[in-house]
UniProtKB/TrEMBL annotation:
The keyword Metal-binding applies. GO terms for molecular function: metal ion binding; oxaloacetate tautomerase activity. InterPro entries: FAH, Fumarylacetoacetase-like_C, Fumarylacetoacetase_C_sf. GO terms for biological process: oxaloacetate metabolic process. Residues 134-339 form the Fumarylacetoacetase-like C-terminal domain. It comes from the Eukaryota. This is Fumarylacetoacetase-like C-terminal domain-containing protein. The keyword Metal-binding applies. It holds the Pfam family FAA_hydrolase. Belongs to the FAH family. Keywords: Metal-binding. It comes from Glossina pallidipes.
Length: 342
């Protein structure tokens, strides 16, 4: 992320990107970016005594030059955080933390007992899940995305996968690998599984969800169409799956099937949809998958993308070096990822 932030900080402010590239000192800009992605629409101008407490919004992070990975929670406005892995008998790794099996009430009690800190420029956000066992994606799961391809909605979910080498954090860079000339965007709501799951019904499926995060399903469209139509190479190149900024506990999300999701490139809106447009809802996706394979704690399910991907615009549009992708989902937060050369 340091490399990406250096590039962001070296760019001159643009009128099209005035909301993102503001003329401030580098350390202030880093803090602005952190609050911008972690906050969910709450004012950033509160007085210190009015700062919100951290809640069930989980992040993985580093402190400055310390390479020890840490687990923490942040407030809804992104202004405060607390480290859970520093003394609350909580693992410093999110996946191991899930396996500890804490209830939401136990977690809230632990959060009340740890020291809160103001967000600062020494924090480096990592992907909230670094080593999931599976990254399962769902294609053609929004009617608008089917319509823009002139395809009928599928009668069964279209599943494919990414590998964990594709994961990067919410402020990390996306590499425009030299082997592709058709780099595309897809903002998606990602489901994070809480526990082992096999042969569950739709009625019980949501009980196996820990929470939600944002995923940007970066795609090399030229390679997606090659290899006999196999998506694997076109979807799993390094840096092709930014996720974050936090994993938001399901109790913090009223209805996961009524969240707006947006994607902009260089400040220009490309996608603007709502999760209610899903063809196959989350409970059905989990139930279907669990009938074939065992889902485990920390497994990610990317639930599909709304219309507006670059490939199907007229004329088609693709990402290029220097472009900035902003992905946003209501109640979850934002990600800001810049495209860089290899």
């Amino acid at each position: 992320m340091a490399k990406c932030l250096t590039k962001l900080l070296s760019r001159r402010p643009s009128s099209r990107l005035s909301e993102l590239y503001i003329t401030v000192q580098p350390h202030t800009f880093r803090r602005y970016l952190m609050r911008n992605v972690l906050g969910v629409g709450v004012s950033q101008d509160k007085k210190p005594e009015e700062l919100k407490k951290p809640t069930l919004r989980f992040i993985q992070f580093l402190r400055g030059n310390d390479e020890r990975k840490r687990l923490g929670v942040v407030s809804e406005d992104g202004n405060t955080f607390a480290e859970l892995s520093g003394g609350a008998c909580v693992s410093n790794d999110f996946l191991a933390f899930l396996k500890q099996g804490f209830s939401s009430q136990e977690l809230l009690h632990k959060i009340d007992r740890v020291q809160c800190e103001r967000m600062n420029d020494r924090l480096i956000l990592l992907p909230p899940i670094i080593n999931p066992g599976k990254i399962i994606c769902v294609g053609l799961n929004y009617k608008g995305h089917c319509d823009e391809q002139n395809k009928q909605p599928p009668t069964d979910p279209v599943f494919f996968s990414k590998f964990s080498n594709a994961l990067v954090g919410p402020l990390d860079c996306v590499v425009a690998h030299s082997v592709t000339k058709r780099l595309d965007w897809e903002v998606e709501l990602a489901v994070v599984m809480s526990r082992k799951c096999r042969h569950v019904t739709c009625k019980d499926a949501m009980n196996y969800v820990f929470g939600y995060t944002i995923a940007q399903d970066i795609s090399a469209r030229d390679w997606q169409k090659r290899n006999g139509g196999q998506f694997f190479i076109g979807k799993s190149m390094d840096t092709f799956c930014p996720i974050g900024p936090a994993v938001v506990h399901r109790s913090m999300i009223g209805d996961p099937h009524n969240l707006y999701l947006k994607c902009t490139v260089n400040g220009e809106e490309k996608q603007n949809g709502n999760t209610r447009e899903m063809i196959f809802r989350i409970d059905e996706l989990i139930s279907r998958l669990s009938s074939f394979l065992t889902l485990l704690p920390g497994d990610l399910i990317l639930t599909g993308t709304p219309k507006g991907v670059g490939m199907y615009l007229k004329p088609p549009q693709y990402l290029k070096v220097g472009d900035v992708i902003q992905s946003e989902i209501q109640c979850v937060g934002k990600m800001i990822n810049q495209v860089i050369a290899p």
